[in-house]
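Appendix C. Worked example: Artificial of inactivated transposase
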Amino acid sequence: MISRIDGPVLRDRIYRVGFGGMLREIVRKARERGIPMIRVNPKGTSSSARGAGL
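Step 2, the predicted output written as structure tokens:
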């Protein structure tokens, strides 16, 4: 669906809006249930951690 949008910048913005809405809902639900949330810098979170999966 989003892959049909020609401009990569517009495609990225649309993706971020959807992702941001999901994150807001997760935070809201966590607060409702008293679950602490810790925000982390996403830089490097997609790479494998040393020793992970062993």
